[in-house]
Amino acid sequence: MLKRIMDNAIALFVVIVVLFLFIPLRPWMLDILLIINIGLSIMILMITMNITDALDFSIFPSLLLITTLFRLGMNVSSTRMILTTGDPGEVIKNFGNLVTQGNVVVGFVIFFIIVLVQLIVITKGAERVSEVAARFTLDAMPGKQMAIDADLSSGLIDEQAARLRREKIQKEADFYGAMDGATKIVKGDSTMSIVITVINLVGGIIIGMVVNGGSFGDVVSRYCILTIGDGLVSQIPSLMISTATGMIVTRSVSEGSLNVDVVNQFKAQPRAIMTTGVILLILGAIPGTPTVPLLVGGVALVAGGILVTRQLEAQRAAEAAAVQSAAAEPAEAAAPSESDYYKDINNVYSLLSVEPVEMEFGYSLIPMVDENHGGKLISRIVIFRRQYAQDMGFVFPSIRLHDSSALGTNQYVIRIKGEEVARGEILVDYYLALEPPSPLGEIDGIETIEPAYGIPSRWILPENKEMAEIYGYNVIDPLSVMLTHLAETVKKHAHELLNRAETIRLVENLKRTSPELVEEAVPSLISYGNLEKLLRSLLQEGVPIKDLNTILETAVDAAAQGRDIDMITEQVRGALARTITRRFCEDGQLRVITLDAEVEKKIISSLTRNEQGVYLAMGPELMQTIISQLAEHLKKFGDLAQTPVILVSQVIRGYFSKMITQFYPNVYVLSFNEITSSVQIQALGNITADAPARGERRAVGT
């Protein structure tokens, strides 16, 4: 029973507070509740000053409503006591006497100043900040979502981390939206305090003179003190709650609690502190100014600035000593000279090795790679390797990282098997803002092209980051830009990195769970060479090879029927229909470009067999017709998030894909049996056998 009551304590508290509006209270009970209200408001203010993230106190909008209702309930109870018995308790009387000090007019002036400060300054400011924060948070949601999707696709985060970040973005939007409405409650509470004060004063004077028959002076003095005391015991908690509201909606760029942020940021500017102290000393020397306070304040600030400067110098000296001690550690034994080293012919063979993946970078990018200086590139590559292995079933080899004096200071080069395949340039002290289709505003920056996807972008200063996100730009840090480019390059060339040794390793890994299948299939029915060719073909067209069990079983069945490796590959792709559908389909729909039946017949008739196998010998006229129409249809995918897909029959899929890849490497060719029946297919265009217009054909030919 007690547990049920505790689980519903807040709900019961709200019900009791509502009853305060109707049920009379004893003065001693009202005194206790007023003290609880003041203590609760102080506690809320302290919490808002010590949190680092507004979501750490996400119950604040609801708490704001409850505390406001609590104050209004006690206001009604105290008003009832003032107007009926004239004795609302010791707390209200003592607060009234404390402020008036025998002068009712001064007490009323101070009370109304407090009310107006809260209503006009704090409450109105907090209301405006909440409104702007809610609007900016909602406007920035698409850019933040795009950043999460980019990190997920590049392997920087996994699905769970992406889900948590999306939930946080949604919670932020809900929180600031709720705060935008909750600030209206604070404003209404301040207005209601003035109304209740007028009611207490006017009603008390009327009752005191008409009902109780007191003199005008005694009645005014008595009820003024009670009215001021009642107003103060409600306004003090209300003022603290209003301050807490302003605090929590302005914690968007904090890194610690308010105390920590204030101390650290003031300590970081000792020159400003000493300059202020010198100015105060100069003012103190001018005749007619308050000399002593100015001199005391100036000396204190100058002394504080000097003390902070010494602390910063000591901290820098300690950091420099740590760096020097690390550099002074015993070095490895001196290596032999280059000529002596290569006298041994066996050492010359080390020059013949080729790294599978290699990345060279300029001098300015070294801190991003060197873990001793906080570089995180290596750890991010490890995360990407794990994510890519989970998605595609292939573990790409280690990446050799080294600097190069032949590159510009901000450049980097990615090599596959010793040959350059990608190059980029980044600015370490900037952020890259990817330009949206319709930005809400222009942002200053250096125009460039994002290296991984070729998106028009701008390098912007860190202080412009938040404004760029508000305008709809997707802002990425330099390390993520370089890692995304590296990740996309590795994905594109993954099939080149799959060698015979890695194929054997994948088979050995499968042997742990399916030893009978491996013993039957490899190498008796399908050789390691053919299996490597099969897996390479799948990776090249973006098909995961994680389900190696299904791949090998299907390959064994197809090989037993005497089919060549190309047909075996098509059979395997059909067995991986669910995987391929998930890879290319979005929301149960697949938008495709189709081939006319006449075109497919002509392609089939163009298939030719020789000693090396079957190949496509298509005439130039038909090829020109297909490529020209495909270029027009691909424009329809410009506004879609889906990868362009061409849907054909299984017979020609592999050969047609090889031909299309030469012209459009980012277009995928799928067959009908690779798409599950649950998918709704929408054709955006159809390639026919009709030749393009004569003028267009002549232009292409010339």
How would the blueprint of this fold be written?
Layout (H helix, E strand, L loop, with lengths): L1 H6 L1 H11 L7 H24 L9 H25 L5 H11 L3 H50 L5 H53 L4 H34 L8 H10 L2 H15 L6 H37 L10 H4 L3 H4 L8 E5 L4 H4 L7 H16 L6 E5 L7 E6 L2 E7 L5 E4 L11 E4 L6 E5 L4 H6 L3 E3 L1 H15 L1 H4 L2 H12 L3 H7 L6 H13 L7 H13 L4 H11 L1 H8 L4 E7 L1 H9 L1 E4 L2 E4 L3 H15 L10 E4 L1 H14 L4 E4 L8 E8 L6 H8 L1
Parallel strand pairs: 1-2, 9-12, 9-14, 12-13
Antiparallel strand pairs: 1-3, 3-4, 5-7, 5-8, 6-7, 10-11
Helix pairs in contact: 2-4, 3-4, 3-8, 4-7, 4-8, 5-8, 6-7, 6-8, 7-8, 10-11, 19-20, 21-23, 22-23
Task: Outline the structure in words.
By secondary structure, this protein is α/β, with parallel strands linked by helices. A hairpin with a 6-residue loop joins strand 6 and strand 7. The chain has a 4-stranded mixed beta sheet, covered by helices on one side. The chain has a 4-stranded antiparallel beta sheet with strand order 6-7-5-8. The chain has a 4-stranded parallel beta sheet with strand order 13-12-9-14. 63% of the residues lie in helices and 10% in strands. The longest helix is centred in the N-terminal third of the chain and has 53 residues, at 159-211. It has 28 helices and 14 strands.
Quickly count the helices: 28
Residues in helices, as a percent range: 55-70%
Structural class: alpha/beta
Cα end-to-end separation: 91 Å
Pick out the low-confidence regions.
330-334, 693-702
Strand content: 5-15%
Q: What form results from the Cα inertia axes?
A: elongated
**Spatial ordering of strands, largest sheet:** 2-1-3-4
The count of β-strands is 14
